Write the structure tokens for this entry.
Amino acid sequence: MISAVATSQANLLIVNGRLWPPRPGRTALAVAGESIVALGTDAEIRELAAPGARVLDAAGGTVIPAFNDAHVHFLSGSRSLSGLDLFGALDLAAVRAAIEAFLAGGKAGPWLVGRGWQYAAFPGGMPALELLDRACPERPAYLEAYDGHTAWVNSPALRLAGASGEALRTGILKEAAMATVERVLPAPTFEEDLAALRRGMAVASARGVGSVQEAGAGQDQRALYQALRERGHLTLRMRLGFDLPPGLTAAAWEQRLDEYAESSVGLDGRWLSGGILKAFADGVIESRTAAMLRPYEGVESLGEPNWDWSELRRAVVEAQRRGWQVQVHAIGDAAVRAALDAFEAAAAERPPVALRHRVEHVETISAADLPRFGRLGVIASMQPSHAEPGRNLREAWAPRLGAERAGRGWAWGSILRTGGRLAFGSDWPVVPLDPGHALHVAVHRTTAAGEPAGGWLPGERVTLPEALSAHTEGSAYAERAEAWKGSLRPGQVADLALLGEDLSRPGLELPALKIRATVVGGRVVYEEGGPAS
Ligand SMILES: [Zn+2]
């Protein structure tokens, strides 16, 4: 037994399980307060129980470190839970039916708000104003595409917003134009946001997630999480990323960093932390806004980078000088290269520091840049569910790039094999918060239904232990927290997911990964079929 505690101190035991990674003589673990204190056999662990200790029977299932989602938009995902969800509506009829059912159910407020529609669900790849006007004629409607880069609105919404031009005919607002209608959307109150976050945390707990990392706008969200913490409602560890915007003068950037330093005081706990800045280098491939080294297939465009690359370099170097870790959203191969260039410039600073800078997404990459993750110690923060080889990937993503570049899509296998580190997440609400699905795509590179047989770009598959490590310890490493969370060891916090099955069983269906219980900080925050404590 590996133990860091005397007998009779453990108040929570998990027995009759398999601890991850599997090793002989490890079927149980003991928790005292917030921490794991021992791993061993059932008999060894039962000896550590304090009087009245709670015992969870794992029934042969695997106990893993709770998932850590390295890239979410948790507030936006939580808010979206009460809106219309169109993610599963894959054709016109399904979209129409979902809108009608939502309205008929009396679930809409003064506005019909929702998200998740997919371009491929509509003829021509874009929804029509008339369809939404017919389905929702009176109430203003604002429906975001699944990627958050386009909004579909109806005529009442356009009138309220005083919109003009093309949008009046199409009902479509892209990128910055979305703000036209966003501005007049009723803003949730502080208490409504707290209620939404509690629903979001319940979703996370039910999926075995114990930690999440908010990818941007964190500077505006601190008060919400602090209120949850003070009221004893924070059941998820939260790391907030602050925005690193382009277009600031050097002086304005330094002033912003001064403000961030001030608002970061106290933001260094184990439940609520910060210390990281998020920059958007580019957009997305589907709308050809991701920044590319060579033009998109069939058009002259290289995409729409958000930064002048030398400006990005200077901003990263200055941020690092003040101790900030930096994460850069980079989807196209030019943006990935620019982010790596900025981190390489930062790495050349003296004295050298290792802040573990990160590139987020990395949807396609030049072959020459693959080994730079390992060489520079830069983390590839990737969201396997984005790479599910379904209709969107086949019909909207791959054709924009052409075969050669699409052939380096989501190259997590190559990054890992060239010495790079991976951190996995979801990007919720862009895709569902579902680590089981992420593991499935990471390991098989197929849809949930198993297509294509053998996997899309099977050379990029990773093993289940590698994928699980990226979604737990890897994500913890990416937030500089692996010393105290992300693995099952005495002394680590007791953030655990108890799975319904033995993970080492061949043929295990990962998309159907069953979570029987989730423990965060020693507290059972989710139990299948039971009340959470
Ligand atoms: Zn994101």
In short: The domain at 78-182 is CATH 3.10.310.70 (Diaminopimelate Epimerase; Chain A, domain 1). The longest strand covers residues 49-57.
